[in-house]
Structures are given as C-alpha cells and as structure tokens.
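Researcher: Sequence recovery benchmark, item below. Answer with residues only.
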C-alpha cells in the first residue's frame, strides 16, 4: 500500500506552485538558467484576494503631516520627519493591520497587493516607504 502511494507520487507532478523566478535573487536566477539550459519558466505569483493587506503605499503629496497614523500604529512602524512634515515607514516591522490606512483623513496611506517583501537588509529601499 505505501509502496504504491510512494511510486504514484514520485511519478506525478508536484502539487505546489514554484516560487516565481522573477523574484529570486540574480545569483539564483543565473544558476537556474545554467542548470536548466533554457527551460526556466517564470511562474506568476499566487493571485491575491480583494482587500488584501499587503505592503503599505504612501502618497507624499496628499499627506498633511497630522500624525494620526503614528498614534494608531501598534508596531511603531511610522516615524515623523518634522523638517518636511512627512512620514517614513519601516515595513519590516509592520503587522499589516491597516489601522494607519483607516486613520488617515486624506487617504495618503493605502495597501498594495505586494507581499514578496523578504530582504536580508532591514534598511533596504524595498522595506522603507517615504
């Protein structure tokens, strides 16, 4: 019984979706292309559902510097830059609760469908929103 199941699973296609190659580091992508010799396929990421809470977006032009988002943020992700009356967000600390988005009176904050945010540097431009 187990042997039959094992053989059938070895001969069937994997049930998981491959990680999209376009999001892999360049070193890994080059390695894959060398190994697979032109058979590398870019798989699209999993589609996100409506109202998905992904990476925070910030519209500097709309922001009035009221700091309401800072007051409601439970993870202390947002810092105020008084010289410009604007904010900076450290996405690596974000819990994606969207309280800042709800509190913003002018709609300067929003949520994007971006969810592939992993990085080795917490101060990477990918993880700082200004």
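Model:
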């Amino acid at each position: 019984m187990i042997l039959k199941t094992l053989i059938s699973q070895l001969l069937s296609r994997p049930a998981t979706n491959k990680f999209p190659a376009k999001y892999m580091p360049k070193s890994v992508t080059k390695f894959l292309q060398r190994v697979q010799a032109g058979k590398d396929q870019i798989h699209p990421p999993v589609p996100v559902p409506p109202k998905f809470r992904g990476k925070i977006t910030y519209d500097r032009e709309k922001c009035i510097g009221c700091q309401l988002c800072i007051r409601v943020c439970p993870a202390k992700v947002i810092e105020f830059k008084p010289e410009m009356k604007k904010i900076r967000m450290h996405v690596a600390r974000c819990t994606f609760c969207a309280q800042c988005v709800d509190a913003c009176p002018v709609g300067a904050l929003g949520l994007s469908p971006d969810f592939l945010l992993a990085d080795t540097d917490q101060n990477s431009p990918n993880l700082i929103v200004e």
